[in-house]
Amino acid sequence: MVFIYKNYDGLGLAELIHSKEVSIEEIREAAIQEIEKKNPALNAVIHKMYDSTPSHKDGKFAGVPILTKNISQESKGEPMTAGSKILQDYKAAYDSEFVKQVKETGVSILGQTNVPEFALMGITEPEFHGASRNPWNVDHTPGGSSGGSAAAVASGMVPIAGANDGGGSIRIPAAFCGLFGMKPTRGRTPIGPVRGRSWQGASVDHILSRTVRDSAAMLDTYTFDRANAFIAPPFEESYLTASQTPINQSLKIAFTTNSPLDTDVDRECKEAVHKTIKLLESMGHHIEEKEAPIDGKKLANSYFMMYFAEVSSTLREIEEMIGRKVKYTDVEPTTWILGLLGKAVTAEEFLISLKFWDEVAIAMENFHDDYDLYITPTTAYPPSKIGELDQTNMEKMLIRVVGGLSLGGVLKKTGFVEQVATKSLERTPFTQLANLTGQPAMTLPMHITKDGLPCGVQVMARRGREDLLYQLAGELEQSPNWIDVKKNPTY
């Protein structure tokens, strides 16, 4: 047979191996060739692990090449820089529970993918490893923080790659690169062995994929992780089966194209939603334009309270690892400022913020009593150009002054927190809601802009209803609206 590696998804490759039509070695070599050919232009893979071998030859993804994300997805003995030069000499002492369980499926991990420093941005342009680029147009970002993973999958290097999502970091890069991305329900995926929660439960691990079935099949493989501080509602059936089962009822679906921050939304992102809504109406679903009952600005500020505290905590943990204080010059200026703001957040403010998460989660549970699904744009704008979102000269000067004098408390009193929240999220204001509530949310590749860049549509469901999302995604994947990622210029 004529074997074209990049034309198969993960399950497709596993089927070829199982039927002995192609060997594990042939597939592995084909993946390495794709990485070597395409990575110089895309900078998706920042650490190669070509010597690794599949640990189980009878798993669901036996012999399938994948990449893992260079944060929170540790492989014992391998680097884990989290996109920062301060961790350039650190090597993981253990496999993360996510990597351990993914290995049980029989995959072959060939390397690690690029991330912004500490996964803090919706773009992947770290100073230490350099910018990752979008396979659809290398002048543009693949998004973040799982931008390296998205670029690798969308370019055909690997069919699936590890990702995690604390504010949109699976869905944003999937939307920007024409991929399918599912953020599972809080507590659904493994997080141990030394962590019980990540970003107070806002962040979960999973994969990016070109097909719905790969995502669903991988979610089927995860087992109970006793380290996890949260337990998702049980699902005893198969997500893969759900993804291949048509919906036999009319769903009630709410949608909006308005930003929860009252900021602008690009016409192309609105069009992606309206095209999808029209398709769903033709399938017999009941559609109603209605916004979720959430104070978007308060949600953004609550998200950033956690954000600041987590960065400050991360820097403190690094100090314990390296045996000295972290200096201003050790990390990127934005990271340093976020850390200072974290030190200025009081315990009272932090707890009030977490209580608001619960209020929002309850509000969304009530909302889903009336609506099966909630649809928005995944992002408010198509992918930005590389460097487009760099700080202005005035912002850089302010960061130098504040960072050098450690004036986090003073900065917090000026209303800077609200300004940071709005500016940081104005391009990606839709994704954080699901992280704070713990709901599952997916992005669907449903639109190409006039400039030839992908644009995603986000769909949210009640906690524990990944099955319903996979059902819908499986149906829409068969529609003409679904983007064929193989049509991008670097595939």
From TrEMBL:
PROSITE patterns: AMIDASES
Domain of life assignment: Bacteria
UniProt GO MF annotations: catalytic activity
Protein name as catalogued: Amidase
Gene3D superfamilies referenced in this protein's UniProt entry, alphabetically: Amidase signature (AS) domain (3.90.1300.10)
Annotated ranges, domain Amidase: 32-469
Family, per entry: Belongs to the amidase family.
InterPro entries, per database record: Amidase, Amidase_CS, Amidase_dom, AS_sf
Gene it is expressed from: gatA
